[in-house]
Every structure is written in C-alpha cells, then in structure tokens.
Design brief:
The chain is of the alpha/beta class and 396 residues long. The protein contains 13 helices and 21 strands. A hairpin with a 2-residue loop joins strand 11 and strand 12. Helix 9 packs antiparallel against helix 11 and helix 12 packs across helix 13.
C-alpha cells in the first residue's frame, strides 16, 4: 500500500484545490493533491471564463498571473439589453476601479498546475479518493487508488475541493447541514466558435424568444449562449439555426453579429445548490462540493477561490498561532459571500430569462427593473459591485 503524509490533504485539482495548495505553500504549509481525472482531462474542461477582481488579485499575489495579465481581457463594463435596447454598466467608474477579467478556467488550471509542479508540489492524477476516515480526530485519512494500487494519505486536515459528485460532499454527515436548491425551468445551449467577438464586453439580452449571452474567450474565439427548454437536445440545433437565433435575440440597432465555425456545443442546466454547513471535524468543503450557482453572473469559480482563501487563512492561523478559531468559523464566513452570490445570480437569471408569456405580469416586472437600471446610478452601482465581486473586507 502506498502511504503518504502531509499537513493538508487536498482532493481535487481544479481551481479550488490548486489555489488552496499555492496559498498554503506561500505560508510554508505542506499539502498534497489527489485528483480523480487525468491531467489532460482537467486542463481541457471548458468551464467559467470570468474572473472577479478578488480572484485576479489573489493570483497576482501568488505570482501565477503572468499569462493571465498578458492574454486575459480586462473588462470595465457589461452591456445589458432588453427588447433590443442596450445600455452599459461601467464597472470601474461605479466601484472605484474594480473590474473583471475574461480568462478561461482551463487556462487558469494550466497556470496553477504548472506553478504547483514547478515548485516541487506533489499531485497525483488519476487517483480517485475512495474513503475519508477519522476526520473527527486529529489524524484524518484519505484512502485512494493510484496505478492500480491502494493508497492512504495521512494528514492533519482534509480539504475536499472535488465538486458536487465528489466524496467530500457525500461523506459530510447528513445531520450536520441543510441543503437548499432551485432548478430553473430552462437551460443554456452554449457554443464556442472560431470567430472574433462581435463585442468588446459581455452582452446579456432579454428577448421575447428567450435569453441570449455574448461572451468571449480571446480575440479569435467567441462564447455564446441561448436559453432553451430543459428537455431540449443538441441534435435539435444545426449551426445555422444557432447563429440565426443568436442574431435575433442579440439584435440592436447599428450592431451586427459575426459568425464562424462552431467547434463545441453543449447544454447546461440552470440550478442553484448549497449547504448551510461546509465542515465537520477536520473535513472542509470548498467550491462546487458545497455550492453551485447558475452561470448568469460568473460566480462559480470566484466563490471557490474565495472559499479556499478563507480556508488558507484558517490553516495559517492554526499552524502559526495554534488557534482553531478561524477554521471553526470557516462556514459562517464563507456563507456570507455565498448567500450574496446566490442572490445576485438569481437576480440576473430572473431578470434576463423569459419566464412567462411576453407581455405578462412577470415580463412587466422584468422590464420595470431594466428601466430602473437605466435611470438609477444607485441600482447600476448595486449590479456593478456584485458583478466585479465585493472586497473580502465586506464580509469579515
């Protein structure tokens, strides 16, 4: 049996697990990462692409932001459209200079993995965790498999950054938390296309045919979405139909949608989920293991990074000051931001998606909110603050 020992055992080599490992390294705290999937798989997963100001600042501080700053695109605002009328929310102007950066999650993972390994960090790919043991003691154990051999990782703490389907969430005692969830009655059909973006900043659009979003990944690749029914299928949509629908829903006077070869299509359900407790004994959950938000607003990756920032602070306090106070308060601290993100994601989702008949009471409420954004700096500031991410001090 392969036997390993470290201070913090981390399950999952996504943004949460890798960021935590690098934050701990900066504090002189050892950790080992085990990851169920292969390195190639993890680095190819196309997920989020929007980084809040907090997230960018953390990566700068960790000295892993060189490529992010070189290739990422800083956005100083966002466009909101309703029935073809488009307005802009200027982030920096309303938030004292805080903005967002567009940089794909898979690129973040590549940068963090390279930095972790270059610094001598241990990471085991294709090593599924099979059991978490003794996390209610001072010596938790992570059982795993690697190269067809059983292994055990002895550690002081377990950080489960292994997603909704991971062993961390499944192991947390069910009587220690309450779950909250919403499944929205629509999904996103998303595409990646080899075409220069038709916009310099993201466009969120309500249309009587349904929601649309124009995002981007680089100056040569565009990321776009349309609202579809939950039971819809990719097979129902040809490339031509997708581009035609996007052109209709995103249309506004004087603007033209560029089209190009689509190289990826997927349908993503829209749902919210989270737990009101993210820890038990010396087992801590972070990222999608503890909460999921709909992609409207781009909070998923950023919440994961915020979680592990709080965890790293708690571990540093434990090892440097022999205090468990910050770790004991981890859930209550993290949940303040999570609730705020859930509310903002729900706000953006219900504002721009078609939920009822065009012209209905629900529609009139959506339109009233949009009309208020147009005339109220305070309302626009509220959106800007939430979109770029509130500073950590706001929740401490």
């Amino acid at each position: 049996m392969r036997k390993l020992k470290t201070k913090v055992g981390i399950i999952g080599a996504g943004p949460a697990g890798l960021t935590l490992a690098l934050l701990l390294r900066k504090q002189g705290i050892e950790s080992i990462i085990i990851e169920h999937r292969s390195r190639e798989y993890v680095q190819a997963r196309v997920r989020a692409g929007l980084l809040e100001q907090n997230t960018v600042d953390i990566y700068k501080n960790l000295d892993v932001a060189d490529r992010l700053l070189r290739e990422g695109q800083e956005h100083h605002g966002v466009y909101l459209s309703f029935d073809g009328q488009r307005i802009r929310i200027p982030f920096g102007e309303l938030t004292g200079g805080r903005n967002i950066t567009i940089y794909g999650q898979q690129e973040v993972v590549k940068d963090l993995t390279d930095a972790w390994i270059a610094g001598g960090g241990q990471i085991y790919f294709e090593a599924p965790a099979t059991k978490l043991e003794d996390f209610d003691t001072d010596n938790p154990k992570i059982h795993f498999e690697y190269n067809d051999e059983a292994g055990v990782l002895d550690c002081d703490f377990v950080a489960a950054c292994d997603g909704y389907h991971g062993i961390g969430r499944k192991t947390l005692p069910s009587d220690t938390y309450k779950e909250y969830s919403i499944t929205y009655p629509f999904s996103w059909l998303g595409i990646l296309a080899h075409v220069a973006p038709s916009t310099d900043e993201l466009i969120y659009a309500y249309h009587e045919r349904g929601f649309a979003l124009h995002s981007l990944r680089s100056d040569k690749i565009s990321r776009l979405y349309i609202q579809v029914d939950n039971d819809d299928s990719i097979e129902n949509w040809t490339d031509e139909q997708i581009w035609e629908e996007l052109a209709i829903r995103l249309a506004t006077e004087g603007w033209t949608l560029k089209t190009g070869p689509i190289f990826e299509k997927s349908i993503t359900p829209m749902r919210s989920f989270f737990m009101d407790n993210m820890q038990s004994g010396r087992l801590f959950l972070a990222g999608d293991a503890a909460h999921i938000v709909p992609p409207t607003g781009g909070k998923g990756l950023n919440l994961a990074v915020a979680d592990v920032k709080h965890l790293a602070d708690g571990f540093a306090e434990y090892y440097q000051q022999n205090s468990i106070k910050a770790l004991d308060n981890y859930s209550s601290i993290a949940l303040k931001r999570i609730w705020r993100a859930q509310d903002f994601s729900n706000f953006m989702t219900t504002l721009f998606h078609k939920q009822d008949e065009h012209g209905s009471f629900t529609y009139q409420l959506q339109k009233a909110k949009f009309d208020y954004i147009k005339v109220s700096k305070a309302y626009a500031t509220n959106i800007a603050e939430n979109y770029v991410g509130l500073p950590f001090e706001a929740f401490e």
